[in-house]
Specification:
heterodimer, A: 624 residues, eight-stranded mixed beta sheet, four-stranded antiparallel beta sheet, 12 strands, B: mainly alpha
């Protein structure tokens, strides 16, 4: 992993690293540079502007400002690095011990130092300064005490998670002494976050040192320090404002470089990639074409044609959904079946125009017949027009009701909000309607449930609430994406019954039921479309497909279903191919028990094999 | 909710006790005789008679536990001791100055929120755009400039060059409200620079994070308008992490007042601390440190309560 990250690491760290290196280099080399004495006064030339001899001018005592800025770097950085290092050694030792031994050791190490975090840092420093008197050594002691708890906290948390790892446990089992395990195994593993903590601490110590020196309570004059220089320049601000500039620039620039280095280190060492904003927010991306498509053969409710979605990945462009076509008539239930990664969820999201930011629709049409009889291609509608469809004509129920309901809003308010987004009704009317809907989906005591927050309901109740919100506006099409997967088996059956009941009472609501569970399909669907590696491999009426599958993948899926009277289960060998490494021929061929040599070369088309049935297998006639 | 608040209050009280104990212990943990240390100036050994007198005055000659007990006892009665310099009661001086420090913090927090929250949300909604990059860069600078540099430069620009505002000072609100607010603007604005940058950053990343959540996708699937989703679901959900981060920075915010009050001659508690440290007036310093640290504990308690209001799930933890 480290090797792969190397070029990115160099690119990210180069600029801030070079800056910090430059400042540190100057600080180290300053005695060797041909500079004037930073503390030699020349009162006659006080506040002299920049000259050939004194490039940045002279300060209120006639001292050379350039020399003082560079020597100041030495003093400020020395205090910052030394205190950050001492704090690091002490804090890491305490954190390691506390995290490794726990119990009483944890109490006297980590918890004890953590109590120092109750104080604003500068106050604790001032308390120490009061007792010891100002000066660089006092400062180093004070800052080291101040910043040790930060390290202890990080080291403790990381040690806790590392000590449970298998290889640490294995070493313990082999009888390695604790000290050896801590230094040789645990420490290298927790080094990255500690490195970040170190650079954070150096920056913070620099700020605090200069602040205290500015107050006259840090570094003692005449030693040059940036904080002291700003203090001095402040008193002569009226005569020589430029004197403020250099130390301010040096200090701020150094802190900025350190902060940037911290940010970049964190980006690199913390693999949690930044989340991009949804593509729908990018203005101007929505096509503002009128949504009424040319009247082809009018679809009953929904007609998806050659839908293709691409995602740009580091490994290149992949097509998680490739040339998918579906059709649905009013009141029909279509099950979209496939393993995870087959593209079924992306297909469902594309119908609403809700693809994640990284995914791009590169082809195809989604024609939807609205209540008023007009037919829209959802992919061509503007975002505003799509929004009007969503939740009103087309609704969606998601897999995990625990995360798909807003945690900070009450259930009833979320349902009412859906209604009011599409209907001009009053707040109270919407609230009453929400309660009625909760009753309709079978929640006991709906008036009280409407006032509950999602976390106060059980998983099954939450999914009922989610469904209530989805059907609030009596949609023509409901897309249910694995609505029962996150629930207990008994609850699953109840939710399926609820969906079936809602369909019966509605005026022909179409349902697309996305699932990986064939048993559910048999129960709820009229027709089934089987997806594999981004493609539809077979499509047809549920009864026919189950009785006589015409694709080896479907057959294998059916064979792998647990059966009441037949205990034998047949697992499908192998795994779904990665979307960036698809086989050249039939995508299922490598796992297919009936593959012929031709299957590895020819990518078969989806062909009609009977009225209402399609298969993507060259040998569909022979599928047993 | 009441149970949660009670538990938090218990923790806050325990923390106040911890803070008081640490402040008490500091003088004893420093190596060497504290009285001698306090009186030594530039390596010159102090007069033994003066050391003995100071020891007696600070009660350092009594057994440690007796000292601790009487310290806590006096603290419970609001007695913070008397100044070494002129013998006046430390508590009285603090009571006079504390409201001014709180006012400064409140004003700074308000300015920072008013700037940081909308800017952070705006930048997140346009992540990657030129406007976002410009604001993020600006926030990076705001985070890096030490507060006393901001203050010094503000005095240079606004007081010295433009002459818009006085370089510092204080007029009581009751005497001249307009003047009072003008004097407040610069110090509060100075603190708000760094704080606003923190709030901006946190809001931006929290809004981006919330956008990726299932319930926002579900809200879009329900056909809510963009404005409603942003204001009602995204920003609402992003507030809790912003408040958490704000709480983490309360300490340095309070610390920042030390420099800013000193810089602008704001007669609050923190600036007074500088004079007390300069004079090495130990009871005075201890009193102020204690009060500001307790203020930090109380602010953290308030944040905990706010957190529960923002996120109903917390109330049951």
């Amino acid at each position: 992993m480290a090797r792969r990250a190397a070029p990115r690491a160099v690119r990210l760290l180069l600029a801030p690293g070079a800056l910090v290196g430059l400042v540190a280099g100057v600080a180290l080399a300053v005695p060797l540079l041909p500079l004037g004495d930073p503390i030699r006064m020349e009162v006659a030339a006080r506040l002299a502007p920049p000259s050939g001899l004194h490039w940045l001018g002279q300060d209120e005592y006639g001292r050379d400002v350039l020399s003082r800025v560079l020597w100041g770097a030495r003093v400020s950085l020395a205090v910052a690095f030394l205190s950050a290092s001492i704090a690091g050694l002490a804090g890491i030792a305490l954190g390691l011990l506390g995290g490794y031994f726990r119990g009483l050791v944890e109490l006297v190490t980590v918890r004890a130092v953590e109590s120092l975090l109750c104080f604003p840092p500068i106050l604790l420093a001032l308390l120490v300064v009061t007792l010891l008197g100002p000066g660089a050594p006092t400062l180093i002691v004070a800052l080291a005490i101040l910043y040790a708890p930060g390290y202890a906290r990080v080291a403790y948390a990381e040690t806790l998670s590392t000590r449970a790892l298998d290889y640490v446990v294995a070493q313990q089992a082999l009888g390695a002494p604790a000290g050896r395990i801590l230094v040789r195994t645990v420490l290298p593993n927790i080094a990255p976050p500690l490195l970040i903590q170190f650079s954070l601490t150096v920056a913070a110590a620099l700020v605090l040192e200069s602040g205290l020196s500015f107050l006259g309570l840090g570094v003692v004059p005449p030693t040059p320090s940036w904080g002291l220089m700003i203090r001095g320049a402040r008193s002569t601000m009226e005569q020589a404002p430029w004197l403020l500039l250099w130390p301010c620039l040096a200090l701020t620039g150094t802190i900025m470089a350190l902060n940037l280095l911290c940010d970049r280190l964190r980006d690199l060492l913390d693999p949690r990639a930044g989340v991009a904003a949804g593509g729908w927010l990018a203005r101007g991306s929505a096509l503002l074409l009128p949504g009424i498509a040319a009247p082809r053969a009018p679809p009953a409710l929904l007609e998806v044609e050659a839908l293709t979605i691409e995602i740009a990945t580091p490994a290149g462009m992949i097509r998680p959904v490739d040339d998918v076509s579906l059709a649905l008539t009013q009141g029909e239930t279509l099950a979209l079946v496939g393993e995870s990664g087959s593209g079924k969820t992306l297909t469902g999201l594309a119908l609403l125009g809700l693809l994640p930011a990284a995914a791009r629709l590169v082809g195809g049409a989604v024609r939807f017949a609205a209540r008023d009889g007009t037919v829209h291609d959802v992919t061509m509608l503007s975002e505003a027009a799509r929004r009007r469809l969503r939740g009103d004509e087309i609704a969606m129920v998601f897999q995990d009701p625990g995360t798909s309901l807003s945690p900070v809003h009450r259930i009833g308010a979320q349902i009412a909000e859906t209604i009011r987004a599409h209907r001009p009704i009053s707040r109270t009317a919407a609230a009453a309607r929400a309660v009625a809907l909760l009753h309709e989906v079978g929640l006991p005591d709906p008036a009280q449930r409407a006032r509950a927050f999602p976390h106060e309901l059980s998983g099954g109740q939450r999914q009922r609430a989610m469904i209530a919100s989805a059907v609030a506006n009596r949609p023509r099409l409901l897309i249910a994406d694995e609505p029962t997967t996150a629930l207990d088996v008994t609850i699953q059956a109840q939710i399926l019954d609820l969906l079936a009941a809602l369909k019966r009472q509605g005026e022909g609501m179409g349902l697309i039921f996305i699932t990986h569970n064939l048993a559910v399909v048999a129960e709820i669907a009229d027709r089934v479309a089987v997806m594999y590696a981004g493609e539809i491999v077979e499509q047809g009426p549920v009864g026919e497909v189950f009785a006589r599958p015409r694709h080896p993948y479907t057959a294998a899926l059916i064979a792998s279903m647990p059966d009441d009277d037949d205990a034998r289960l047949t697992a499908i060998p192998g795994t779904v191919p990665r979307p960036d490494a698809l086989p050249p021929g039939c995508r299922f061929a490598p796992r297919c028990s009936q593959a012929a040599p031709a299957c590895d070369e020819i990518a078969p088309p989806l062909q009609p094999i009977a009225p209402g049935r399609e298969s993507r297998c060259l040998k569909w006639r022979e599928v047993a | 909710m009441v149970g949660y608040a009670a538990r938090r209050l218990g923790i806050a009280l325990a923390l106040i006790w911890v803070v008081a104990t640490i402040v008490f212990l500091v003088i004893h943990l420093i190596p060497g005789d504290p009285a001698e240390l306090l009186l030594s100036q530039g390596g010159v050994a102090p007069d033994p008679a003066a050391v003995a007198e100071l020891r007696a005055r600070l009660g350092l000659d009594r057994p440690l536990l007796t000292q601790y007990a009487s310290y806590l006892g006096r603290l419970a009665h609001g007695d913070l001791g008397a100044s070494l310099l002129d013998d006046h009661a430390v508590a009285g001086e603090i009571a006079l100055r504390l409201p001014r420090t709180i006012e400064l913090i409140g004003a700074a927090g308000l300015i920072a929120l008013i700037l940081g929250l909308p800017a952070g949300t705006w930048a997140a909604l346009r992540a990657g755009s030129a406007g976002d990059r410009a604001l993020s860069g600006l926030a990076g600078i705001g985070l890096s400039i030490p507060v006393f540099v901001v203050g010094t430069l503000a005095i240079l620009v606004f007081a010295q060059l433009l002459r818009w505002a006085p370089a510092g000072g204080y007029v009581a609100f009751a005497r001249d409200p307009a003047r009072h607010l003008i004097e407040l603007a610069m110090p509060a604005g100075t603190i708000a620079v760094g704080l606003g940058a923190i709030i901006f950053r946190m809001t931006r990343s929290a809004v981006l994070e919330v956008f990726g959540r299932d319930h926002v996708r579900a809200a879009r699937a329900r056909g809510l308008t963009r404005t409603r989703i942003v204001l009602h679901h995204v920003v609402r959900g992003a507030l809790s992490p912003v408040v958490t981060v704000l709480a983490l920075h309360l300490g340095s915010l309070l610390g920042g007042t030390v420099l800013v009050e000193f810089l602008f001659n704001w007669p609050g508690l923190s600036g007074y601390l500088v004079r007390a440290v300069e004079a090495r007036d130990y009871p005075e310093v201890v009193g102020i440190v204690l009060v500001i640290s307790i203020l930090l504990v109380i602010l953290n308690f308030a944040v905990d309560l706010l957190y529960a209001v923002l996120d109903p799930r917390v109330r049951h933890v």
